[in-house]
Prior knowledge:
Elements: H1 10-15, E1 18-22, E2 25-30, E3 37-39, E4 44-45, H2 47-65, E5 73-81, E6 90-99, E7 103-111, E8 120-127
Antiparallel strand pairs: 1-2, 2-6, 3-4, 5-8, 6-7, 7-8
Amino acid sequence: MSPELLDRIPYARFLGLESRLEDDVLTVVMPFADRLIGNPLLPALHGGSTAALLELTAVAQVALAYPRLHLPRPINATVSYLRSGRPEAVHCRARILRAGRRVAHVTAEAWQDDPDQPIAGLTANFLLSYTE
């Protein structure tokens, strides 16, 4: 599957996710929009939109690595919020740590200015089912 996979997912379109592939590394960007603000007093990004960015990036990375798969289905996901997301674009990358015949273990990190200072991280397992 290609990075255009995100264009076929309605919630990814709602979030405005953009993807680019450089040297087999998928980077997904969530551009800032006012509707993504969860706490207007700070202002800070909504945790749900950040978590969705992380999960959708992980799904896209698995789909890119295994093109004969149906869309990977999440088994479980844990999100760690490390700092408040400022009202600006968020970048995200995922890495497949281990993949077997049925399950893939994936991590993802989201950052804004500096990849060494993530705002959130995800650890998830996805169910893999192959097309026949």
